[in-house]
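Notes to self after the call with IL:
- keep both proteins in one doc
- input above output, always
- annotate only the second one for now

Protein 1:
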Amino acid sequence: MGATGTTGTALLHSLRALDVPVRALTRTPQRPLPGTAGPRHDRLVEVRYADAGDPDSLRAAFEGADQLFLAMANSPAQVALETRVIDIAVVSGIGHVVKVSAPAAEPDSPVAISRGHHAVEAHLRASGLTGTVLRPYAFMQNLLRLAPAVAEGVVLGAMGEAPCNYVDSRDIGDVAAAVLTRRHLAGGTYTLTGPEAVSHPDLAARLTAVTGRLIRYVDLAPDEMRDDLVHRAGMPDWLADHVVEIQRLAVARPETPTSTVADVLGRSPRTLDAFLAEHRHHFDR
């Protein structure tokens, strides 16, 4: 589930590289999935309609499957939708669910979305299914959303000089493919990061080096950051709250990288510098 999302797309690519057949679930099956054109990909990828809000579609989509990758966009309805998906997976005969969660998935987390992820993780553990949990930190791909601000020469945040973990979603896809195809990895909890934690001032310096233009980090008070996200970026209130909450958590709990990607895959995770260089054209717009 989530075949058109950032991690879902990465996982499809990883599974195709392993020649593993997969059923890609989407609410828009009439639209081509990224990278699925061509006879080989048609043979490996079956595209089916499924909507977490439509239980009948889930039952039909899950028929004959024995494993499920569950990645849904954060939202206020996430707990209700993901627990429903897990319940239908149980009665559909699925034995293993890989859930994309969050690093601070704790019952008393200061991040509301993370408290929701904790509730879904607990529901998965109680379901009787084998549950594997992936807890990735900030996606490098989300940095592409900074392009409009970078075009104005700034990176905004409310993190001061606190270090932040980033991870390339392609590494998440590779780890997900590993836990789906190597059964001894199933049932674990994996916290995923890149090889280093990078502060916002350092991020601005790296963007300066990549673009050849001076990019400054502007540190805002949390309330100022929230107002900017709502009024300039057009975020809904709950999402603006989430962004500020995770940035403040990074200040309260300085982030450090894990070795999980290397431990699972036997190679180093992709670096932030390589990602920025690869997507330099995005920031030149």
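Protein 2 (the one to annotate):
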Amino acid sequence: MKNNDNLSRRVLAFLQPLMVAACFLFFGTANAACRDSVVLVHGNTGEPADWANTYNELRSRGYGTGEIYRPSWGSKSCASCNNHDGAEETPVRNAIQSAIANSCTGKIDVIGHSMGVTLAAQQIIKLGEQARVDAFVGIAGAYRGLWSCGTYPYNVWNSTCGYYGLSVSSPFLDWLYGKSIAGRIYSIKSWSDQIVCVSGTCTVGGVHSSRIAGERATYTFGYGHFGLQEYTYSLQADLL
């Protein structure tokens, strides 16, 4: 009986480190795999496929297909028809809600390009989910408006530039500006942006229009409007 007890103690002493290591490996791996879901919101007349480089970068970093949401919104053929009111809102709102509901952490990260920046920010605010958005990355957005759209209500000639659009000082942008949207906010911009800077100036009130109130940092590249989305994919993933 005494020999059996000694044998049991020796077996337990041998197995205990292995059991601890196995538990550490299991829980450590589970914890590492738990991350925010990501919502990628394309720009005016864009497509989910516009995020191909970003999507592939996230997948290479271990994100599963079910952790990345790429809503398709708005008309693909009429850029001047799209704004931030009505049917354009629904796909983005649904994607944000689904991402939150299915997120391992209960939080999400959002990356928007161009008009997708302001549309995503709007939906986060309308849903009241600011506390569930960890990181928000705005790429080539027009948070302060587009001079090509004029100054509201003057020279406002279509939906994209109207009340719910991107004219400087539009009621929509005035409502949006300064509101909390995430725990961490970043902007990616260019002084060669052929959309934001098409009028010859990139600034509104002396500040680059792609910058977001309350941002933690802003990053500048020499790419054009679409190159900012396509070629900064590694930085985008780093910021999440």
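Annotation: The CA atoms of residues 27 and 121 lie 35 Å apart. The mean pLDDT is 90.
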